[in-house]
């Protein structure tokens, strides 16, 4: 459980960092790169959710 939480936190932290860097810094130098970084950041949360729920016992 701890490993999944850590992986989820790292993935979401990376996502947030990409968004902030893309629109605070990178857009000033290369708008297409900022858009590409945002697209990559948008793909991360679904995978983070899968990682966070991997192996969860679904029995009631």
TrEMBL record:
It comes from the Bacteria. Keywords: Membrane, Transmembrane, Transmembrane helix. The keyword Transmembrane applies. This is DUF3099 domain-containing protein. The lineage of its organism: Bacteria, Bacillati, Actinomycetota, Actinomycetes, Streptosporangiales. Pfam families: DUF3099. InterPro entries: DUF3099. The chain crosses the membrane at residues 7-26, 32-56.
């Amino acid at each position: 459980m701890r490993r999944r939480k850590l992986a989820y936190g790292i993935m979401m932290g990376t996502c947030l960092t990409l968004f902030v860097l893309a629109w605070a810094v990178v857009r000033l130098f290369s708008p297409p790169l900022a858009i590409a970084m945002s697209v990559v950041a948008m793909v991360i949360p679904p995978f983070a959710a899968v990682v966070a729920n991997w192996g969860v016992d679904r029995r009631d």
